[in-house]
Amino acid sequence: MSTGFPPRVFIQEVVTRDGLQIEPCFLPTEDKVALIDALSQTGVAKIEVTSFVSPRAVPNLADAREVARAIRRWPDVTYVALVPNLRGAQEALEAGMDELNLVLSVSETHNLANMRMTTAQSLEGFRAIVAAAAGTRVSLNGSIATAFGCPFEGVQPAEKVLDLVEAYLAAGLQSVTLADTTGMANPRQVFALVSGFRARFGGVPLTLHFHNTRGMGLANALAALEAGADRFDASLGGIGGCPFAPGATGNISTEDFVHMLGQMGIETGVDLPALLALARSLPALLGHDIPGQVAKAGRSGDLHPVPAHLRAAQ
Amino acid sequence: MSTGFPPRVFIQEVVTRDGLQIEPCFLPTEDKVALIDALSQTGVAKIEVTSFVSPRAVPNLADAREVARAIRRWPDVTYVALVPNLRGAQEALEAGMDELNLVLSVSETHNLANMRMTTAQSLEGFRAIVAAAAGTRVSLNGSIATAFGCPFEGVQPAEKVLDLVEAYLAAGLQSVTLADTTGMANPRQVFALVSGFRARFGGVPLTLHFHNTRGMGLANALAALEAGADRFDASLGGIGGCPFAPGATGNISTEDFVHMLGQMGIETGVDLPALLALARSLPALLGHDIPGQVAKAGRSGDLHPVPAHLRAAQ
């Protein structure tokens, strides 16, 4: 920890994509749009708006096109869509997204379960997406799912993960996300893999995507920060999970993470009170409680009044 | 993180003290005893059995005497009781506890609210307890509540906390706990305070006591480990909180912490499957869900069977 932390961390909000996809009920399009428009004004760096995926596979995101068209665009926010294949990429390009987030799993079994393709087929498919985006100003990010462990195959070798990063870069992608899809990562592993990434790929932009499945979400984020990571996905309220990953639960909570960073003196540019107000609106929207803690407990600095009988005694 | 972690961490279970005191219902004495007897066989280093406190102040622990007498004693486990004053200490000594845990708050306002005394009065009272324990084999630990922040007064200066440690040692106490009573600590602060403790007090045994009030519990534990801490309080299921501390919620979950340490290759000597079985018994005992995550999600290494349609395809 003595080596210090990055002075500034970029917060990438994924609540309307990863957050919503496993929800029991469909959030109406207008509510999604209102939520994204409100998030656009909180200071987050990116918003993963939706996923252009088959409505049969993820019914909750069946309105991807409508959402992408209806949201307002803030100049300082990068609007991202997850795309599983060329068709999704074409829809995302037509919808004017700023960035496409491609995804495959380093675990062959998880890729078959999640994408219905082998990893090699996924990579091959990415070439067509790169071609489709060529000549546009749209940037391409490559996500590596199960980078810290697969619920079917277990921990994946770091070398295999980093080789896949190399394949991404060779295919023409500009940045990479290492995703702990089902919350299997631990801090020591995170520090080692992020350090390994930095050593091999230098300044290639890297995002970390953690779930709090086993309570280690913010501990893993801390370990990543210590290894120099400065971009993180997080989900408002800590909701979310992958419908094709057994045992997956919520992403790290955006407001809890922003709160921790603020307490540590690390700049995010995010308006925490605005974020907390949005997090507190989620239970009414979703019909259930949220995992995020700060929305319930208040910020560390929100002091309580001294009890009346003590004020009298003092 | 490059400086490494302690090779072995001591787990101190507080579920039947800190865990139960804020519960809405009284857990029957026989259930407490059965839980402690089961915990004695999991490999935890200490168990904080109960608190010898006024039954009016903490009705849930009104059976302190009965519990302390009825539990079985395992030779490798240190049995501790929290004592707020001389009367409590005498009862704990009569009940044959191995260790007394004295407590005061570094925040004057919190001490008044929690102990109904000034900090100076608390310290003065400790002299009588030290005298009462003299000549016995009972060890004395001093806890500093609100060491990382007070819900009434805010963050307390590190110097003030460490001066209190010195006062504890001067009074004849052998070991110290720094308690984040209402979950206000952040990792940077934890690293600094634990490092400051180590620099000033060398090998004096130090326990860290964290709550997960704002989601930072395990991140704070990680920061403490990095500063060399190797003793931690934790509560089965992550239940608990201080009835006199507004906004206080559960302790860090014993099973989630032991799981994280195991994944990081740090030895605890604790039987995680046994601990998970006990954590999973809590909802039936308490009548509500528990915050602990691993009891729900399973361990990172608990793999799922490959889906049948993929096995057929391979």
UniProtKB/TrEMBL annotation, chains A, B:
Residues in Pyruvate carboxyltransferase domain copies: 9-276
Phylogenetic lineage: Bacteria, Pseudomonadati, Pseudomonadota, Alphaproteobacteria, Hyphomicrobiales
Keyword list, A-Z: Lyase, Metal-binding
Signal sequence range: none
Gene3D superfamilies the UniProt entry points to: Aldolase class I
Any Gene Ontology biological process: ketone body biosynthetic process
GO molecular-function terms, A-Z: hydroxymethylglutaryl-CoA lyase activity; metal ion binding
Name of the protein described by the UniProt record: Hydroxymethylglutaryl-CoA lyase
Family membership noted in the UniProt record: Belongs to the HMG-CoA lyase family.
